[in-house]
Amino acid sequence: MSDIQCSCKEQPRHTAEVFDRLPSNVANALISTAHSLSYPSNVLLFSEREPAQNVFIVLEGEVKLSINSRDGRRLILHIARKGEIVGLASALSGKACEMTAETLYPAKLAVLSRRDFLAFLLRHPEAYQTLGEELSHQFTKACEQLRNLGLSSTAPEKLARLLLDWSENGQTNEAGTRFHFSLTHQEIGEFIGATRETVTRTLSEFKSRQLIFFHGATLTIPNKIALQSYARS
């Protein structure tokens, strides 16, 4: 792992969703095993093909998960948010990391070494059900991303599907559904397999059709049905 400067080291507060899904005694044991560390933006947590060393639970912020080619091309598979576990599959299998993880914004993560994590599971095998559900969720999200990338025929269709997926965790009111949206156009392109220029042009087209509105780092979809029709959902 790359060197980082961490601003705090303490037991994580009982806030992340994965803790809430565990029996209380198991959650407390996990809390006592982990440390809460604060990371700045764009910190490399681990790289694909590295030996699995740690497991991370997102408490605050977001973590970008991607796969990368030798010639520098990148495909972003998922943005892990509060309550999600990063590095779980490789920690359980003992195989090399299957993807790269980087903090997208300043983030607070509960960190466990792989050895401590496996020791925790030996003491608390009842945690396996929750972790199995988490692995299933991660697999489903990866399949959705690959389906969007491989089966959508055009960049506008791919982008519309991506925005609809992100809006699922947004807030809905009379103006529509809004959610935090501060990825660069380059990063969006890495989600849908398109160039930055294509993303810029497609977002402009969506705005001109009043399918989306921006206000700072907030994106609003005023009519999800209209965007779904555009996405051929």
- Lateral strand order in the biggest sheet: 1-2-9-4-7
> Class of the largest domain in CATH?
Mainly Beta
**Helix share of residues?**
40-55%
* Uncertain ranges: 1-15
Shape category:
globular
- According to CATH, the fold-level topology of the largest domain is Jelly Rolls
Backbone CA Rg: 19 Å
* Helix and strand composition category: alpha+beta
Got a strand count?
Answer: 13
Number of domains: 2
CATH architecture of the largest domain: Sandwich
Largest sheet: 5 strands, antiparallel
What is the CATH superfamily label of the largest domain? Answer: Jelly Rolls
Number of helices: 9
Please indicate the percent range of residues in DSSP E strands (runs of 2 or more): 15-25%
**What's the average pLDDT?**
86
Intertermini distance:
40 Å
Helix and strand sequence: EHHEEEEEEHEEHHHEEHHEEH
Write up this protein.
By secondary structure, this protein is of the alpha+beta class. It has two domains: 9-150, Jelly Rolls (Sandwich), CATH 2.60.120.10; 152-230, Arc Repressor Mutant, subunit A (Orthogonal Bundle), CATH 1.10.10. Helices cover 41% and strands 25% of the residues. The strands form three sheets. The protein has a five-stranded antiparallel β-sheet. The protein has a four-stranded antiparallel β-sheet with strand order 3-8-5-6. A four-stranded antiparallel β-sheet has the order 10-11-13-12, with no helix packed on it. The longest helix is centred in the middle third of the chain and has 24 residues, at 128-151. The chain is globular, with a radius of gyration of 19 Å.
